[in-house]
């Protein structure tokens, strides 16, 4: 019957679901009337109305009009009001009539949200005027569930603590410190659970120190910053119901479960406090469970957090870990430095620096390095010398080496240090901390073999081996000449050996031989390569009558390595004086007295001749020979020889050295270059030599310019 809401029919036109909607949502109020009201109701009627309002409300019925044939006990016509088949009331009669039973103005309240009305009429109506029936209004009336008496089934009050009545319903809530159980009805002491993220805190069982309520399922989560670990410290008063077994307490009904990630959860119960409980974790979950029986006095704990610790690094051989702390915690850094002379090595590779951090998992992020001794590598080689190890090994730190030169052909520059130590910067350093190695300079004018009786006996002879190691045999375009070694890349000779008809010979035509006193043997050797020829720039001997500046230098391609058979001559200081009468030595493969070309290197000892005497000799030669041009004697020349003749340098000796020996150092120095003469060894004639001391700055400059 949908007469309650006539609009629903209208609604149905557009909303097809309306039928169900109307049925499922009873209205909050409505009107009910007898058939044909306000016309008299028909006879022989039995009609029933089932009224309802939404759940949670009571239905209140108020009659606005009731006019039903009165009879005793409403025997004939009646309107019966029922609730669940239980008759609440039966009505008939009229307002203020003595007969029948009229509801008056008092509304009728159903015990529930439903009410049934039944109108019954008999088939006769004895009275002349007909009765109109009834009209009533009904509405939903809110029930105050909270004030209802406790149900009789001993399940306790509706709300165990606080009840709030609401329209059509009610809500339970709990006093402070309690929380509503899932049944939404009963309260239990609050677990005080939740997430504990402070660095420290206190947790205890609900109601502690009172015994724990029954039926608890409390969860506590301690979750602090990663890199910290939680330590639980249970107080002594600890009591959780347990079943004693042979293997200790069994937490069968009550327990406190401690769950740590990656570990088996642990159930605690019994009467002994677990005391201090390190967890090694930054999160811990505690679940406290009690069932509906038994007694647990409860527990309490204080938790603290500590920074995660990393194991102290082990000590490093030949190195140091800094800083040195008794303990290392999360985010602490360590560095490793090696002692001086040691280097950081990791995984077989050298590293510049090392730093490692203690991570939140308690592990160092890098494993420790090692300190290996450094080495300076092979010491630099010393040309014409060597290096010997004094102490240490494998060129390691603090090894000491010593440089030496190949004596007696080379010597260290005076004052040079020879000891070098492998320093922490991996270089070999001397005691002045310089890494530059010394150099070996050639020893000049000191043959290993000497001509016995030199400077006492005047005379020429075959030169014993190695007595004149500066001697050079020149072969220029087939002609033979002499020269002298003055440096490891420099040969000095007479300019006239290299300049023919005012023209410099090709350097390829100049063959330089050193190292033997046997000309034939020498000639079979590979000549030394020539880089360049440097005749003195002022040498101009157009008509073979001007031997002024008869000097020249030859630069070799490869430096000579000096040894007993090849050694340089010393050069004199600039403008050095030549003592008249001092015996010098001239050597060469030139023409012998018998006018044959010498195969063996020969030498003659000849004194320096006074300039006047030499000039006189030249003048005399000029006077005697009108046809021949006699060259001019200049200050750049000097003479050597004996007045009686027979001893002289000669053709083929040209360019060779006339040497004098320093009385103090006993070294031979290049005093002259065999230049010219009028004949060879004639009486009253002398050999003329280029005065080397006049050319020192030119020699220096030429060498400098052609390095
Ligand atoms: C644990 O708590 C007790 C007090 O209950 C206290 O005496 C003890 O020092 C605490 N231990 C630690 C390591 O904090
Ligand atoms: C060498 O002599 C020349 C010429 O007489 C002169 O110019 C030069 O200064 C002298 N050198 C030395 C070092 O005495
Ligand atoms: C020539 O050079 C040497 C070293 O190279 C030097 O000792 C000497 O003084 C120089 N002589 C002249 C005259 O420049």
Automatic annotation (TrEMBL):
Residues 1-24 form the signal peptide. Its EC number is 3.4.21.41, 3.4.21.69. SUPFAM superfamilies: Complement control module/SCR domain, EGF/Laminin, Spermadhesin, CUB domain, Trypsin-like serine proteases. GO terms for biological process: blood coagulation; complement activation, classical pathway; innate immune response; zymogen activation. The iron and 2-oxoglutarate dependent 3-hydroxylation of aspartate and asparagine is (R) stereospecific within EGF domains. Protein C is a vitamin K-dependent serine protease that regulates blood coagulation by inactivating factors Va and VIIIa in the presence of calcium ions and phospholipids. Exerts a protective effect on the endothelial cell barrier function. Serine protease component of the complement C1 complex, a multiprotein complex that initiates the classical pathway of the complement system, a cascade of proteins that leads to phagocytosis and breakdown of pathogens and signaling that strengthens the adaptive immune system. C1R catalyzes the first enzymatic step in the classical complement pathway: it is activated by the C1Q subcomplex of the C1 complex, which associates with IgG or IgM immunoglobulins complexed with antigens to form antigen-antibody complexes on the surface of pathogens. This is Vitamin K-dependent protein C. Core component of the complement C1 complex, a calcium-dependent complex composed of 1 molecule of the C1Q subcomplex, 2 molecules of C1R and 2 molecules of C1S. The C1Q subcomplex is composed 18 subunits: 3 chains of C1QA, C1QB, and C1QC trimerize to form 6 collagen-like triple helices connected to six globular ligand-recognition modules. Within the C1 complex, C1R is a dimer of identical chains, each of which is activated by cleavage into two chains, heavy and light, connected by disulfide bonds. It is an enzyme of class 3 (hydrolase). Residues 18-141, 191-306 form the CUB domain. The modification (3R)-3-hydroxyasparagine is found at residue 165. One of its GO terms (molecular function) is serine-type endopeptidase activity. Disulfide bonds join 74-92, 146-163, 159-172, 174-187, 191-218, 251-269, 310-358, 338-371, 376-422, 405-440, 444-570, 614-639, 650-680. Residues 308-373, 374-442 form the Sushi domain. It is found in: Cell surface; Endoplasmic reticulum; Golgi apparatus; Secreted.
